[in-house]
Design goal:
By secondary structure, the chain is an all-alpha fold. About 50% of the residues lie in helices and about 0% in strands.
Length: about 50
């Protein structure tokens, strides 16, 4: 009997993870409301720049 062991490269694991760089300016431990406000402000600023 063989023991099939699957390994993953670090790059494969990173590809499965969602990007979070749009939340870099949000404090750790903040709640949904703070995240929503931050994202709304970012969208408003981007819309004003167009």
């Amino acid at each position: 009997m063989t023991n099939a062991h699957q390994t993953h490269d670090e790059t494969d694991a990173e590809a499965d993870e969602p990007t979070t760089d749009h939340l870099d300016d949000v404090e750790d431990g903040c709640g949904c409301t703070e995240i929503w406000e931050h994202m709304s402000e970012t969208r408003e600023t981007a819309a004003d720049d167009d």
